[in-house]
Fold this sequence. Notes:
Layout: H1 8-11, E1 17-24, E2 29-33, E3 38-45, E4 48-51, E5 55-59, E6 63-67, E7 73-77, E8 81-88, E9 101-104, H2 107-117, H3 128-140, E10 150-151, H4 156-167, H5 175-182, H6 186-197, H7 201-218, H8 223-229, H9 235-246, H10 250-253, H11 255-259
Helix pairs in contact: 2-3, 4-5, 5-6, 7-9, 8-9
Amino acid sequence: MTLPVYRQNLDQAPRPVAVxxxxxxxxxxxxxxxxxRGQLLHATSGIMRVETxxxxxxxxxxxxxxxxxxxxxxxxxxSKVEMRTVxxxxxxxxxxxxxxxxxxxSGLLRELILALLDxxxxxxxxxxxxxxxxxxxxxxxxxxxxxxxxPVPTDGRxxxxxxxxxxxxxxxxxxxxxxxxxxxxxxxxxxxxxxxTGLSFAEWRARLRAIEGLARLSDGASVAExxxxxxxxxxxxxxxxxxxxxxxxxxxxxxxxxER
Length: 260
């Protein structure tokens, strides 16, 4: 299957490091595509979901994802998003990770991206623009991965369940109910989740809800609002689920919550 190359103008930018600022509506979806360049994707506001064949990441403003060149992916906006993207020429990606990396974006890197946006596309590589680009590359090499991916199955029956829950994690339906929608028996669906994600259905759904919840909290939602949105009747039950699923309470997992 041949996938479209999006933002071809930046894949063919006149400089090896290029940046893009884009506003997206809450309903926007960028279908499966590739970039010839490596891509760092983050938002200054709003939440988006980035998916590859085997995993999904939910990105609040404090987080970014590095995607190596030629990796098929799609992006779904979970709210109104102010997106910032850095494109890195393939030749410079050899010293960068060869797989997706979900990481907290540093204040320095965020400011460097904004600074490069102020430069012309054909900035002088021996002047300010070139200095900023080199610093961006230095910061990219220091990304510290956070293992907050949601595994995605490839079997169509399990994938139908996963897509529905990623769009609305708060759906209150047990495995028997999902089995009817997926066109598989309860036993088959349970086996597919375990084989293709490494998690039971209940574990997978808790992980999705925990990561979705952290993203909503980071974007400014209250604990009570977030708990209700991801299917929990109380803030305490939601907090306990995050601690149980990810090993720490929300404030320990996201320092930006403590800052607020």
